[in-house]
Write a structure and sequence with these properties.
about 220 residues, Rossmann fold, about 30% helix, about 30% strand
Length: about 220
C-alpha cells in the first residue's frame, strides 16, 4: 500500500541545513498498524507529513496505492488527502461553533456526498465511537477523550484507505489514552490501515509494528505479536 524508497527531506535554518529524513526506505501493507517512535528531531513528524501528502520529499520515491505521490500536482495531492487519508491530531482540531455531527461532516463539505447521506454517515460513526448520546454537543461540552473520539469519527467519514494519527493520546490522561488506543485497535481489527506517531513506548506497543527513528533514519523495527 505504501512504499518509500530513498526519501530525503531537508530544511534550511539560517545558514544551516537540517536533514530531517536521510534516504529512508520502508513499506507498509494494507491493514497494518504501524507506529513511529523517536525523540524530538528524529524525523518522525516529517515522515508523517510526507505520508499524509502535506509535504513532499526533496528526492526519492513515494508510492501510495500505486500512485507516485512526488509526481502529483498540488490539486492531485489535495484530492488524495481528502479521499484516501484520515487525520487524527493531538489537539483535536475541532471547530468550536459546530456540534459533534457538524465537525464529523466537515471533510465531506466539498465532496459529491449529499447532506442527508453526510448526516447519516456522521451519526453512524459517532455511534461507532461511543458518542451516540453526544451528537449535538459542541467541543467545550465534551471531555478530552470525547473530543478525540469525535476527531476519530471525522477521520473515518471519507472512508479512507489509511488513518494517520499524530500523537493521538498526547493530551489525554492514561485511562482515556487506553480507551482511545482500544478504539484504534478495534478499527484496525476491522480492516483499517493505521499509521501513528508517538513518543510513548506503551502507546506505540499497541501497533503491530514499531519503527524507531533517530537523526532522520530508521534505526530499528520491532514486530509485536
Amino acid at each position: 500500500m505504501i512504499t518509500l524508497k530513498d526519501i530525503r527531506k531537508s530544511f534550511t535554518n539560517g545558514e544551516e541545513t537540517i536533514v530531517a529524513l536521510n534516504d529512508v526506505s520502508l513499506s507498509i501493507q494494507e491493514n497494518e498498524f504501524v507506529s513511529f517512535m523517536g525523540s524530538s528531531g528524529s524525523g518522525k513528524s516529517t515522515m508523517m507529513n510526507i505520508l499524509g501528502c502535506l509535504d513532499t520529499p526533496d528526492s526519492g520515491e513515494y508510492l501510495l496505492n500505486g500512485n507516485a505521490v512526488n509526481e502529483l500536482t498540488d490539486e492531485a495531492l489535495s484530492k488524495i488527502r481528502n479521499e484516501h487519508i484520515g487525520f487524527i491530531f493531538q489537539t483535536f482540531h475541532l471547530l468550536p461553533k459546530l456540534d459533534a455531527i457538524g465537525n464529523v461532516k466537515l471533510p465531506l463539505r466539498y465532496s459529491d456526498v449529499s447532506e442527508e447521506e453526510a448526516t447519516q454517515r456522521a451519526q453512524a460513526l459517532l455511534e461507532k465511537v461511543g458518542l451516540g448520546h453526544r451528537m449535538h454537543h459542541r467541543p467545550f461540552e465534551m471531555s478530552g477523550g470525547q473530543r478525540q473520539r469525535v476527531a476519530i469519527a471525522r477521520a473515518l467519514i471519507n472512508r479512507p484507505t489509511m488513518i494517520l494519527a499524530d500523537e493521538p493520546t498526547g493530551n489525554l490522561d492514561s485511562k482515556t489514552s487506553d480507551d482511545i488506543m482500544a478504539l484504534l485497535t478495534e478499527l484496525h481489527q476491522q480492516g483499517q490501515t493505521i499509521v501513528m506517531v508517538t513518543h510513548e513506548e506503551n502507546i506505540a506497543d499497541f501497533a503491530q509494528k514499531v519503527i524507531t527513528m533517530k537523526d532522520g533514519q530508521i534505526i530499528s523495527e520491532k514486530t509485536n505479536s
